[in-house]
Amino acid sequence: MNLYEHTIIARQDTSPSEIKQLTEKYSKIVEKNDGEVIKTENWGLLNLSYLIKKNKKGSYIHFKIKGKGSVINELEKNESIDKKLLRYLTVKVKKFDLETNYFSKKDESETKESIKN
């Protein structure tokens, strides 16, 4: 079984309930194709580096997936049709980093400590 990190960017006007539906939809596609979603992260609404289909921002959803290459082919086939999505990216990795959450808000205490140092 291969390990993949898969990120999708939804349009900026996508509601939180639609984001949840997208997450469930693509998780089900992975499971139908004998894959397993290890972790799902909602990174929220982030600025894009450049305009994509007249959008300045996008809602990022990140999946950590364990499965065969056919799982990714099926995912990308469905995502290329979806009008709510701007972009998607899949990266094959050797192992998952499940501890670090890169887009979470830092605690105020951590921020103050880093300023003192």
Total beta-strand segments:
4
Largest sheet: 4 strands, antiparallel
Q: Which structural class fits the helix and strand makeup?
A: alpha+beta
Report strand order across the widest sheet. 2-3-1-4
- The arrangement of helices and strands along the chain is EHEEHEH
- The portion of residues forming beta strands comes to 35-45%
Q: CATH first level: which class? A: Alpha Beta
- What CATH calls the topology is Alpha-Beta Plaits
* Multimerization state: single chain
Q: What is the total number of structural domains?
A: 1
Our measurement of the CA-to-CA distance between the termini, rounded to an integer number of angstroms, reads: 43 Å
Describe the protein's architecture and organization:
The chain has three helices and four strands. Helix content is 33%, strand content 42%. Strand 2 (36-52) and strand 3 form a beta hairpin. With 117 residues, the chain is an alpha+beta fold. The longest helix is centred in the first third of the chain and has 17 residues, at 16-32. The chain has one domain: Alpha-Beta Plaits (2-Layer Sandwich), CATH 3.30.70.60. The protein starts with a strand and ends with a helix. The chain has a four-stranded antiparallel β-sheet, covered by helices on one side. 15% of the residues are buried. The protein has helices spanning 16-32, 69-81, 108-116; strands at 2-11, 36-52, 55-67, 85-93.
Question: What is this entry, summarized?
Answer:
33% of the residues lie in helices and 42% in strands. The chain contains three helices and four strands.
